[in-house]
Amino acid sequence: MNREFLDLLMAKTGFPEEARASYRAGLAGLESAGQGPQMEKAIEDFYTDRFDMEPLGPKIEAMAKASGVHVYTVWGLFLALAGERAKADYLRKGVPKEVFWDTFCDLRYKVLECKEVQGVWGNFVAFWYPIFYRCDIVKLGRLEFENDVYHGKPYGIDGLRLEPGDPVKSIHIPSSGEPFDAAARLNSYKKAYDFFQPTLGGGPLWCVCDSWLLLPAWQEVLSPGNILDFQRDFDVISHREEEEFADGWRLFGADAQKPAAELPERTSMQRAVKRYLLSGGKTGEGFGILCFDGQRLRTRR
Question: Distance (Å, rounded) from C-alpha 136 to C-alpha 210?
């Protein structure tokens, strides 16, 4: 296990010192329990098995049990250590080094979320990460852009067409704490348009987003601000409601499992969503399409 790379990754991606100490202690715990070879084999198998997470679960759990290191910390260490090979792959594909480090800052966001929600420095959403090791996602400015294919019905705007099977970028909004206003988002779209220009063939940048933030109901629930402005960047063409607020932990953290009446009200968004839930409102996700021509958004209003 490459301790030097682990320290480099945590430094480059801005891990809090307490998280770094926890990971170093976790690595030492794995090593003292003789689990170093098992970790290296798990990383090798991950790449050999084309980034299939399912077979990794029992291996990670076995390492945690043998070492006494929390399973979420072992997951976090696995993802960090596996990043060494991913870094080489990104650079081989021509991705600038600074873009790689910006992209892998996602590990910091998730270690903070894990501490908030689970009380442990680590990672409890490892299923999300194969796209990072396939080099299929980059963070450009505020947003992350994943290589994807459009699966919806034919779509057109201003004479531009998006057909089923066309390549698109799926937008993800990491919990980085960075500004999320219109200027930050526009800067991100421009960075993505320039970054992907070699593959756009002179056409626009087509993006899709499937997120709880795009739920149309928020237009009636939330006060004007960045979330509603973000919705308006897209043509939200469909949505689905859910019986349970699956993304509630993103808003309410460790309190998300509490009954609606006991949810915290520390922010205006928490208060608004809590009122909505108490009134019987349903949460869910919206699916939107965004078209950016390098200067402006081509979005239906």
Answer: 17
pLDDT in tens, 94-109: 999 999 999 999 999 9
- CB 148 within 8 Å of CB 170: yes
Q: Measured between alpha carbons, how far is 45 from 25 in angstroms, rounded to an integer?
A: 24
Tell me the CA end-to-end span of the chain in Å, nearest whole number: 53
pLDDT on residue 211: 97
**Same domain assignment for residues 146 and 175:** yes
Q: Is this model's pTM higher than 0.85 or not? A: yes
Q: Are residues 96 and 28 in the same domain?
A: yes
Q: Are residues 97 and 155 in the same domain?
A: no
Residue 91 tokens read as: 């650079």
Give the structural domain span for 56.
3-133
* Residue 23 lies inside a defined structural domain of this protein: yes
CB neighbours of residue 258 within 10 Å: 12
Residue 95 · residue 25 · CB < 8 Å: no
How does strand 283-292 pair with strand 235-242?
A: antiparallel
Q: Is residue 9 part of a domain?
A: yes
